[in-house]
Structure formats: C-alpha cells, structure tokens
Design brief:
about 160 residues, mainly alpha, Four Helix Bundle (Hemerythrin (Met), subunit A)
Length: about 160
C-alpha cells in the first residue's frame, strides 16, 4: 500500500503540470487541429489517472475498470480524429512515441481487465505501469514541458 501511495503522489505531482505545451518538439509539426486534439487527450488521461486513485482506495474497482477502459480507448482521439489526421500522426510522430503510446494503452487495457476481475493487488501494479509509461514518454518526448523529469533522468544515468 505504501508503494501505491508513493505512485499516486507521483501522479498527482505530474498532474499538477498543465498539458499545454505539447505542441513543441516532434509534436510541433502536427497541424493545429491535431495538436488541440492531442492536448485534449492528454488532459482527459490526466484527469482519468487522478480519478482512479479515490476509486481504487475506496474499493470501487468497477469505476477503476470504467476509467481504464476509457483511457485504453483514447477518450478524445478515437472519437474525433479523421482518417487524414490518423495518417498525419503516423507520418509525423516518431516510431518510439507511437510504440510508447501503444504500450500505455495496453497497460490501460490490463488495468481494466484486472479491475473487472477484482484482482486488487494487480490494480495497483498496472496503475503504476501506466504512471511509468507517462513518465517515460514525457522524459523522452516532452522534456521541454517537464524539465524536472529530464533532470531526474540525467541524474539516474550518472549514478549507474
């Protein structure tokens, strides 16, 4: 439980950052409309991650499953993205970014499944995997937005 609280606090700290600014870096080349959709998606994921915490600690695993399912299904993007915009995403975003995104959504699907199956111990595990995915992607693809993560990453590499 201590590990979950630590992970939850990390999520809240990360969530304290605004999602504005994702238009920099490789995302800068995306059309303004697609950048807006991506920013909306990131904001929805951030809110979903925050909403999982009270649901989980109160034992409401059906709510955790519902939120995880929404994250897995890409709240905004799947509902609003056009075929042209899908092509643009795959053409302009680095393959590493897309791979990390796929892994993130896979973990969301696993969180949804273990929540439905009432595997409480695995709920915390897959929630932490989602957080790790967020941090990893932000470290590599949004260091301009999350400079503290870039500093942490550099410090960790120097200690190994």
């Amino acid at each position: 439980m201590k590990q979950f609280i630590k992970v939850a606090m990390t999520c809240l700290i990360i969530g304290a950052f605004s999602t504005n600014g994702y238009s920099e870096g490789s995302i800068k080349t995306l059309s303004p409309e697609l950048r807006v959709l991506l920013e909306q998606e990131m904001a929805a994921i951030e809110q979903g991650m925050k909403n999982i915490i009270p649901a989980y600690i109160s034992g409401n695993l059906s709510e955790v499953a519902e939120i995880a399912g929404q994250i897995k299904n890409s709240y905004i993007l799947k509902a609003k993205i056009t075929e042209e915009q899908k092509h643009e995403l795959h053409q302009k975003l680095p393959k590493e970014f897309i791979a990390k995104d796929q892994k993130f959504h896979k973990y969301a699907g696993m969180l949804e499944r273990v929540s439905h199956e009432k595997h409480t111990e695995l709920v915390g595990f897959y929630y932490s995997k989602l957080l790790e995915s967020c941090v990893s992607c932000h470290t590599e693809h949004a260091e301009h937005r999350f400079p503290s993560l870039a500093d942490e990453f550099e410090n960790a590499e120097h200690h190994h």
